[in-house]
Amino acid sequence: MSFPETRPRRLRRSAALRRLVRETTLDAGNFIAPLFVCPGNGVRREISSLPGQFHFSVDQVVREAEELAGLDIPAVILFGLPKKKDEVGSEAWQQDGVVQNAIRAIKKAVPQLVVMVDACFCEYTTHGHCGVVVNERVDNDATCENLGRLAVSYARAGADLIAPSGMMDGAVGFIRESLDEESFDETAILAYAAKFASAYYGPFRTAVDSTPAFGDRSGYQMDPANVREAMREVALDVEEGADLVMVKPALAYLDIVAEVRSEFDVPVAAYNVSGEYAMIKAAAEKGWVDHDRLMLETLLSMRRAGADMILTYHAKEAARLLKKA
């Protein structure tokens, strides 16, 4: 059949009809909210590069977590700002570290909230790279040793998921073995399986003061040109024991999200990263775009590509809008 018998617009003529035939849904249950935890007390300091996002001390991050849970957002992921930095980022695995304290406080106040923790060292090292540096190159295996210490420290504090983000070869397997040896066999791993060396990370690096002191991260993060390599990276992480996998960034890599979703039967996350968030904020501030519509359309595109969950700085404002809808 063809026009005039075939008229696809018949199913678009009312909001109720459009909702009835909608193929992709977006709701608060799809979101993971990133939170930045810093030393101190009573700190809620807005981040200049991420309008609407804050550095929180532990007491304040608990209040934020309670608010997110009240919006039916099921999970948060924590990033830490240390009291001090050193060459290897040893502050990261201290049991009284700011992230460890935040995990315990959140799990006590909001036990139903899933607490994920980013496992990396860029915020904790004096050089800003994601691990142990030898002769201005990241030592993969030495970094994996420290990631094992870090993962166990977070698990002891009560983290539900560990999320290694440094793109070290074998890191997932090493973390899985380290957790299992310490009887944390129920602690899950969300692998940053396909993390690309992207220009979209700029606002985040300002937020956590993690810009590399020399060189860049293209020696361990992925080349943005490669799809087949991304599939291999995901396959390796799944084989090593990853329970969930992630593509980062999301918006310029929706083809990768779709390919991963098609090839693998594990939950797939997409990271709606800082640069993607900041672009919408900046354009809306200029009056060039409708902030709320563009935000929800962008998040929906990630779900449509196949992401089961989205790490997004928009989580709170998007959840509020969706609740009103």
Strand and helix layout:
Blueprint: H1 15-20, E1 31-37, E2 44-47, E3 50-56, H2 58-70, E4 75-80, H3 98-109, E5 114-119, E6 133-134, E7 137-138, H4 140-157, E8 161-164, H5 171-181, E9 188-195, H6 202-208, H7 228-240, E10 244-248, H8 254-263, E11 268-272, H9 274-285, H10 291-305, E12 309-312, H11 315-324
Parallel strand pairs: 1-3, 1-4, 1-12, 4-5, 5-8, 8-9, 9-10, 10-11, 11-12
Antiparallel strand pairs: 2-3, 6-7
Helix pairs in contact: 2-3, 3-4, 4-5, 8-10
Q: What would you say this structure looks like, in words?
A:
This protein is α/β, with parallel strands linked by helices and 325 residues long. It has one domain: Alpha-Beta Barrel (TIM Barrel). The chain has eleven helices and twelve strands. The protein has helices at 15-20, 58-70, 98-109, 140-157, 171-181, 202-208, 228-240, 254-263, 274-285, 291-305, 315-324, and strands at 31-37, 44-47, 50-56, 75-80, 114-119, 133-134, 137-138, 161-164, 188-195, 244-248, 268-272, 309-312. An eight-stranded parallel beta barrel has the order 1-4-5-8-9-10-11-12, surrounded by nine helices. A two-stranded antiparallel ribbon has the order 6-7. Helix 3 (98-109) links the parallel strand 4 (75-80) and strand 5 (114-119). The longest helix has 18 residues, at 140-157. The chain is globular.
